[in-house]
Write the structure tokens for this entry.
Amino acid sequence: MNKKSVQKLVLFLTGLEQRVVDNSSFFKGIVIKLKSGTKQYEANITLKDGKLFLNYNGRTDRLEISWLSARVSKIAESYEALTLVYEERGTSIIIEADDKNVKMRSKDTKATEACKGHNETAQIANRDYFIKVGPADDVLKAIGILGENGKIRNDMIRKYNQIDHYIELVDDMLKTLCSKYGSLNIIDCGCGKSYLSFVLNYYIKDVLKKNCYFTGLDISKIVIDASYRIAENLGYKNMNFRITDIRDYTAEKDIHLVISLHACDTATDEAISLAVRNNAKAMVVVPCCQKEILSQYSFDMLHSITKHGVLKARLADILTDGIRLLILEALGYKVSIVEYVSPLETPKNLMIRAEKAGSINYSLINEYKKLKETLGIHPTIEKLISPYF
């Protein structure tokens, strides 16, 4: 390859060096096809522990990332043409070089038609899925939703719909956060096997094309170990997991989003508290089993209604989530609450979404204090964020 083309190739490769540094958690590898006459040769580059490994001409050499452009351009000098494919999650960059020209183009992972052959009654009719069968096969198989035959398992159709609807409900929030902060740091409280984080990870990086980093928190070593295994199998290097109580966790860097799915009773309050204490930009929680206020509240004016146990329990659920919303509003969050799934599937179906929007509203804090006194309650969420109250 002539000197002019090699010099231009060096410029493109220097840009790739920086990309490897910036996106090391998403880097998959580089494949280089080399042409000399009628013969073709291949070289491969992988990344491990911050070093590149070049497999070429029967040997493997370890390289500093900053050596990439020099080493590849030196190899290119001995050939007539080169095609280099840089792969990271969701994106391919292709460099084609010969004596006439050097061109670079990118090719994003394209979504294919979703859910062909999955028209079972439990599926949402005519739905344009966010997590599409085809592009998302790897993650859907890893969490047990997709079978080896490439189709959604019959017993997982409902779960698939729930996960996809979750993405639909947080899509606007994710796009807003990505536009503001670029790369997102996300904490999954009570993560379990982290199925939701794996799907969110896929959606943010592979679909929205934004960088993201996940930390899963859980007190169970069994589920944390399971999460690590899934992340390793998927090659999701942008995830880590910690065995810890949510109350004991303090973030080492800015948190953009805190999530919690079906955290039972006051565990939802612990997730909200973690977000507040760490000044998270947003949170999405789906509460479950709101028991605490049920055993505390009383309201004489409604005794003729709350004497019926089932009605008292349902009102306790409403009060619990309503108080959470009021406190978050008082702390400067813009809040909303929506049905996450149909109440026919589960009565624990509400999703609380909150985005940091302003400063503390002391009139709302006073409103909460009056409500607390009227009902005779002492919510855990207040104790967890007590400096504000």
Residues 65 and 348 are 50 Å apart (CA to CA).
